Amino acid sequence: MKFRVETLPHYRIAYLRRFGTYGPENSEVMEDLKVWARERNLLSESTILLAIPQDNPETTLSEKCRFDACIVIADDYQIDGSIFEGETSEGKYLIYEVKHITEDIQEAYSKIFLFLQSNEYHIDNRPIIERFIGNMNSNSFCEICVPIK
Description:
Order of helices and strands: EEHEEEEHEHE
CATH superfamily: Regulatory factor, effector binding domain
Structural class: alpha+beta
Strand content: 25-35%
Distance between the termini: 20 Å
Shape: globular
């Protein structure tokens, strides 16, 4: 599996949150976010979208699992009351580019944790992020960003 190490910057984000089992419903929340962003002319070739599952489904009840669909916004962008505002932390990540289809995502996640164990990387206590930059939004690719320390 091909990867690279990258330090992700602090991002200011606007986001929509969904509670429940992680699955196809997450893409509905991302589509709602894109509608919100399109209405405000925030989608472009440089747009960064983030999909952030906040909880481990092995240790959190499925109905309490949080999924955030996010868009990176400028520091001076004024948020209205129709969306949440937040931020991500700067940090080091292993980055894997994968086709954003269920089979490839599942395969990548199964390999990522084996890779971490067999190499000298340790996962950090930050959420894994699926990042979509520019044309990744339209060509079905994403980067799985695994926090490491």
